[in-house]
């Protein structure tokens, strides 16, 4: 098996040299274990938190031990009665080509008419996060004016489409021109944050949503939050999903200077972690999976080839290198 480890807990944006590719022969399969040949690996922004050496809501990666992450693969040997050779499964033994792990936490994919890697993106954890934050945290209603940051990413691109489908007016913030064009094709008012101050971004949001913002789906923090705060309507709701702007910060970032708008406009701002809502995953799949299969929900993937490219795929998340879900393909 070939797998990645990290050799240290980094400060700031990790260097490529932090990630080491190791090779080890696999031991015999123990009772209750399965061996899986991975087809697809997920890299996600939350993994940066696992590289901090501190326990947040997930334990840190252990130094010099195989890293973990969501993956889709095929069972090639099984010592568990629930799983058999040939099953296509999702599991957390990512960052490696062949995973040998306990069958607990290995789940056969629901068979549907979508490509298997959709279960790492639009129908997996990022999709579930989008649905949870929009519906259960922000309590988005038809007619709301919705603002989404990192709107062309894995989570954001589903948030904007679920909100559009509810009959909301939706503004999406993103970086590159091709991302803004995709958002526009989805009926979203695109707004670039590049080379803008918080004030300039706020003005651009106002132009795109003259009636203010009722729901802000927060993926970024930084100037996006500051700009959004100035455009909120009374009684607005903010679902704090992520703050990727600060994940590599080497010192505490200055707070938004206009945080008092939360008070003045009687806003509710609430953080959430998707794993606490996983009992609703079935409900999410029932609603969203037919729409993905029918092509009514549009999703994009940015795919890097080969296990060696996994760290680069991860690091590009912080430079906007992905549109939609960032994936690594091991299919060659
Ligand atoms: P994305 O697919 O959105 O990838 C990250 C994107 O963020 C990049 O493509 C880039 O797009 C944007 N970005 C990166 N750095 C910055 C920056 N400094 N300022 C502005 N934009 C930036 O990732 P995910 O969809 O997987 O995750 C989105 C957010 O949701 C993250 O914050 C993540 O941590 C959070 N999350 C939270 C969960 C929870 O349970 N609360 C679960 C899953 C995800 P661009 O080119 O537009 O800049």
Automatic annotation (TrEMBL):
Key words, A-Z: Oxidoreductase
Pfam family, one: ADH_N_2
Domain Enoyl reductase (ER): from-to ranges: 12-328
Gene3D superfamilies: Medium-chain alcohol dehydrogenases, catalytic domain, NAD(P)-binding Rossmann-like Domain
Domain of life, source organism: Bacteria
Gene Ontology MF, one: oxidoreductase activity, acting on the CH-CH group of donors, NAD or NADP as acceptor
The protein, known as: NADP-dependent oxidoreductase
């Amino acid at each position: 098996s070939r797998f990645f480890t990290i050799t240290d807990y980094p400060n700031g944006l990790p260097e490529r040299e932090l990630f080491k590719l190791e090779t080890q022969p696999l031991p015999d399969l123990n009772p209750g274990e399965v061996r899986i040949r991975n087809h697809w690996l997920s890299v996600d922004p939350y993994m940066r938190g696992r590289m901090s050496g501190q326990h947040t809501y997930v334990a840190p990666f252990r130094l010099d031990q195989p890293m973990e992450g969501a993956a889709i693969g095929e069972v090639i040997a099984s010592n568990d009665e629930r799983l058999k050779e040939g099953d296509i499964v999702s599991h957390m033994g990512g960052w490696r080509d062949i995973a040998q792990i306990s069958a607990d936490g290995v789940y056969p994919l629901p068979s549907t008419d979508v490509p298997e890697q959709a279960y790492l993106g639009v129908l997996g954890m990022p999709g579930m996060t989008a649905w949870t934050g929009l519906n259960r945290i922000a309590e988005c209603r038809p007619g709301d004016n919705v603002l989404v940051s990192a709107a062309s990413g894995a989570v954001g691109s589903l948030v904007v489409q679920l909100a559009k489908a509810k009959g909301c007016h939706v503004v999406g913030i993103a970086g590159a021109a091709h991302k803004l064009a995709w958002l526009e094709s989805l009926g979203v008012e695109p707004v670039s944050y590049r080379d803008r101050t918080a004030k300039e971004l706020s003005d651009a949001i106002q132009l795109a949503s003259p009636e203010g913002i009722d729901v802000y789906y927060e993926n970024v923090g930084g100037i996006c939050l500051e700009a959004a705060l100035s455009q909120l309507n009374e009684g607005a709701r903010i679902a704090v999903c992520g703050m990727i702007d600060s994940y590599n910060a080497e010192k505490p970032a200055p707070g938004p200077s206009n945080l008092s708008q939360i008070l003045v406009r009687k806003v509710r701002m609430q953080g959430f972690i998707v794993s606490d809502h996983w009992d609703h995953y079935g409900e999410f799949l029932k609603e969203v999976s037919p729409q993905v299969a029918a092509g009514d929900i549009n999703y994009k993937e940015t795919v890097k080839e080969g296990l060696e490219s996994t760290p680069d795929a991860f690091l590009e998340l912080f430079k906007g290198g992905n549109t939609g879900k960032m994936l690594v393909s091991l299919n060659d």
